[in-house]
From TrEMBL:
Catalyzes the hydrolysis of methenyl-H(4)MPT(+) to 5-formyl-H(4)MPT. GO terms for biological process: formaldehyde catabolic process; one-carbon metabolic process. GO terms for cellular component: cytoplasm. It catalyses: 5,10-methenyl-5,6,7,8-tetrahydromethanopterin + H2O = N(5)-formyl-5,6,7,8-tetrahydromethanopterin + H(+). The lineage of its organism: Bacteria, Pseudomonadati, Pseudomonadota, Alphaproteobacteria, Rhodospirillales. Its EC number is 3.5.4.27. Keywords: Cytoplasm, Hydrolase, One-carbon metabolism. It is found in: Cytoplasm. InterPro entries: METHMP_CycHdrlase. Pathway: One-carbon metabolism; formaldehyde degradation; formate from formaldehyde (H(4)MPT route): step 3/5. Its main location: cytoplasm. This is Methenyltetrahydromethanopterin cyclohydrolase.
Length: 334
């Protein structure tokens, strides 16, 4: 299979297919589960099967369409939360916005109940259900599709069939990876979006995406929350209060400096409280939250034309302690 899309850029479908096959082949070692719905492969990343950190790391790389590298490493910035998730992409625009971003709204309702999830991953570029792909000028083709769903329930067969049809592939060539927010794998793959969150805000701020050459990000790994809201709060806070991203851009220095100033989460009107508290304040209406909140805590923008770097935002370790489990002393429960 060619690794180039019709536009001459990398094919997310081609690059992700072997990653999906390897994930399925390693389900026993990774403590994942496999099921079939309407012929499609369903990977259980934390429902009936426990999954784990390595599963989450590999799912995160799969979610980036084969254009990202995710690692777990020591975080020397904190004596309480010693592990961080590091993310790098050779093509942050395509890997993050064209693949990893959760932009495909998937829902189904019948007499048996309802299902809703946001789809992320390389299959989005095959379906092109979002205007974003026209802005990116990107089209992909392929006979295998992969989506990652932050969900604790299995999508119903009619929806699975619609997803396959939307991607233009046979259901037997569709892989859906399910990672509940409160699972270990879900925690890793969400925190691994630290670079994607930055890229999404770069786009929202109107900075030219073609000027972003490279990017890397890190964020602390939180303990999984007890339920969906706590887990969602902790994974968001890891990025909002503990995430650092460095972008390498072309163009004038004043544009790079302005991006560094406006990009961090600290610039949002909703900054200053753990995400779960903000969520409760708006009566759990996700769309009532300032969209500019979703960004890393600290950014460095390096202007390649001049070699100068511009800094914005700051880390907030005390907010991480509040979110992740209090600020108890050494030797006590976190």
């Amino acid at each position: 299979m060619t690794q180039h899309a019709p536009t001459g850029r990398p094919s997310l479908s081609a690059l992700s297919a072997p990653l999906a096959a390897a994930l399925v082949a390693d389900v026993v070692r990774l403590r994942l589960g496999i099921d079939r719905v309407a012929g499609a492969t369903i990977v259980d990343g934390g429902m009936a099967h426990p999954g784990g950190l390595e599963a989450g790391r590999r799912i995160a790389e799969l979610c980036m369409g084969g254009l990202g590298r995710v690692t777990l490493q020591a975080d020397t910035r904190s004596d309480r939360w010693p592990v961080q998730v590091a993310v790098h992409s050779t093509d942050p625009v395509l890997a993050c916005l064209g693949s990893q971003y959760a932009g495909w709204s998937l829902s189904h309702k019948d007499e048996g109940g309802s299902f809703f999830a946001l789809g992320s991953g390389p299959g989005r570029a095959l379906a092109r259900k979002e205007p974003l792909f026209d802005e990116l000028g990107y089209t992909d083709s392929g006979d295998h599709a992969v989506l990652v769903l932050e969900s604790g329930t299995v999508p119903p067969a009619p929806l699975v069939e619609r997803i396959a049809a939307g991607c233009g592939v046979a259901a037997e060539r569709l892989t859906l990876v399910l990672t509940p927010t409160a699972s270990l794998a879900g925690t890793v793959q969400i925190v691994a979006r630290v670079l994607e969150v930055a890229m999404h805000k770069v786009h929202a701020l109107g900075f030219p995406l073609g000027h972003v050459v490279d990017g890397i990000g890190v964020a602390p790994l939180p303990p999984p929350g007890k339920g969906f809201v706590e887990a969602m709060g902790r994974t968001n806070d890891a990025i909002l209060f503990g995430g650092t991203v460095q972008l390498f851009v072309t163009g004038p220095d004043d544009a790079a400096a302005d991006l560094a100033k406006r990009l961090p989460s600290t610039e949002s009107r909703d900054y200053g409280r753990p995400f779960a508290e903000v969520f409760a304040t708006v009566n759990k209406d996700f769309y009532a939250i300032d969209p500019l909140l979703f960004a890393p805590a600290r950014v460095v923008v390096t202007a390649l034309d001049s070699g100068r770097s511009f800094h914005g935002g700051h880390l907030a370790s005390e907010m991480l302690d509040r979110s992740f489990g209090g600020a108890e002393g050494a030797g006590t429960a976190g």
